[in-house]
Amino acid sequence: MAKKIIQVDEKVPGSMLFPLSLQHMFAMFGASVLVPIVFGINPGIVLLMNGAGTLFFIFVTKGRAPAYLGSSFAFIAPATAIIATKGFEYAQGGFVIVGLLGCVLAFIIWKFGTKWIDVVLPPAAMGPVVALIGLELASFTVGGGSIGAEIMTENVSVEHIVVFLVTVVVAILGSVIFRGFLSVIPLLIAIIAGYLTSLCFGMIDFAPVAEASFFSVPQFQIAKFDGAAIITMLPVLLVIASEHIGHQLVTGQIVGRDLIKDPGLHRSIFADNFSTAISGLIGAVPTTTYGENIGVMAVTGVYSVQVIAGAAIISIIIAFIGPLTALIQTIPGDVIGGITFLLYGMIGTSGIRLMVDQKVDYTKSKNLVLTSIVFVAGLSGLSINIGGYAFKGMVLASVVAVVFSLLFFLFEKIGLSNDAQ
Fold first, then answer.
1. Number of other residues whose CB lies within 10 A of the CB of residue 313
2. pTM here?
């Protein structure tokens, strides 16, 4: 029997709302909290702005585009360089400017439409760019730390391996064989199973929970602006635009709706970037539609915006309650790694699905070459330094995708392409 689908605008029963919302919150938590940890700031302000940004996104898109806004990984490389020389406040200034330029892009899309997207990023290029969103993050699943299992480290223990395997096996098997209500919360069940296994091995330290103040106020700080820092941050605009369009296309494929047309790409990309600008202005990190939560929807068949809003509200509440923040931070990286092991793979598969659904014709040389070079540019480890900024991974892949898409389009227009033969 086919899995029951709960559509975007459908309400879920009250008894299901909290666990479904909690599942979405857990899916984004590890990766979202990692970014402020890397930047050396308190995660509380980030959880607050992720939740607030998500509610704003839902409002702007009229509740028609299910998406959770989490911390963006695309800004890590340039922000780390800025923080090392000038401090986090100047990185915030870069976040604000990139976010505002993204809002300008939303206006251009509103004014001139979206047909140019197929020229700048046709499906043969967009598919691998989307796939790289997940594939580039795949190493984090077993890289140790707060969001990855310790199974690849030198001193790996049996306990770490067991916790990771319990989590990932329950997530995989649950997604395939669970029925009824359990079929829509397999990832939450996997997290609980992994956490309980960690408890059995004595891997959880509850001291931070006991020491945390019940009520805590997130740490706000105002952005500072510097021309060099802003220029360093600007190339990220291309990446986040590609990522956002890819996420909307993939989510649309999953829920069976054209989100580019309704509610419209201009609405979703404006909400995403305005949230980034406000977050950067007051001390948080840039936000982006989250692939982990797209993966949750793909696995569970629950697309309801009501559930996404519930997850956002939970995130905001946690930001102000010290023991809750501390408790969630006790979830071992082996558990988070076990969940993202499946989710990141599903993001990669979504990029491939995009190419299949768009019926990309690989008998045409331009399509075959585009997909090939984008994948290799993103996964080869190649790094190109321009003006003190390193283009690598998905950043480099996005640039390669746009440059060669435009070049091949020009070749077709002037009759140089051999695909016409």
1. 16
2. 0.75
